[in-house]
Write a structure and sequence with these properties.
The structure is a single chain. With 155 residues, the protein is an alpha+beta fold. It has five helices and five strands; from the N terminus they run ββαβββαααα. The protein has a five-stranded mixed sheet, with helices on both faces. The longest helix has 14 residues. The radius of gyration is 15 Å and the shape is globular. Bound molecules: FE2/S2 (inorganic) cluster (2 copies).
Length: 155
C-alpha cells in the first residue's frame, strides 16, 4: 500500500500514490503526471536538467523528495508560457538560437526565468552566478547569456 500525496503543479492539483516518500519529485512529474519537460540528466544535483520552480525558486527535482514538497506550488517549463504566449525568456531563447541538442534547455530556461522574476535587470556577473550550477555539453553558455540579457530588456 503506497502513501498518498497531493502535488500542485502548474496551477492544478494532482493526487498521487507512491511506495517510497523519498522518491524524487522528478519521477513523480515525469512518470505519474507525464510532465516531461524536467529531464533526467545526472540524477545527482549536478547538471540542472531537472529544474522546476518550487514556490518560485529553482530547485533540482532529481534530489527533491516528494515528501519534502508539502503544499508548495510547483511550476514546470510547461507552466511558464505557451507557444502563443511565451515567457520572455522562451522567446529570447528562440531569437538567440541558443539550443543545440536541447537536452539541457529546461534547466537553463527555468533558472533564467526565476532569476528575472527576482532580479529583472541582472548584471552579467549575476547572470553567470545564477546559471553556474547548470551544465550544457553543447557549449551554449555564451548564447544563453545573450538570451538572458535580451529577455531582461523585455521584462
Ligand atoms: S538531473 Fe537533476 S541536477 Fe542533473
Ligand atoms: S544544448 Fe545540448 S546539452 Fe545543452
Amino acid at each position: 500500500m503506497g502513501q498518498h500525496f497531493t502535488l500542485t503543479v502548474n496551477g492544478k492539483t494532482h493526487a498521487i500514490e507512491i511506495d517510497d516518500p523519498d522518491m524524487p519529485l522528478l519521477y513523480a512529474l515525469r512518470d505519474d503526471l507525464k510532465l516531461n519537460n524536467p529531464r533526467f540528466g545526472c540524477g545527482l544535483g549536478q547538471c540542472g536538467a531537472c529544474t522546476v520552480h518550487i514556490d518560485g525558486r529553482p530547485a533540482f527535482s532529481c534530489i527533491t523528495p516528494v515528501s519534502a514538497v508539502g503544499d508548495a506550488k510547483i511550476t514546470t517549463l510547461a507552466g511558464l508560457g505557451t507557444p502563443e504566449n511565451p515567457h520572455p525568456i522562451q522567446k529570447a531563447w528562440l531569437e538567440e538560437q541558443v539550443s543545440q541538442c536541447a537536452y539541457c534547455i529546461n534547466g537553463w530556461i527555468m533558472t533564467s526565468a526565476a532569476l528575472l522574476a527576482e532580479n529583472p535587470h541582472p548584471t552579467d556577473r549575476e547572470i553567470k552566478e545564477a546559471l553556474s550550477p547548470l551544465v550544457c555539453r553543447c557549449g551554449t553558455h555564451g548564447a544563453a547569456m545573450r538570451a538572458v540579457r535580451r529577455a531582461a530588456q523585455a521584462v
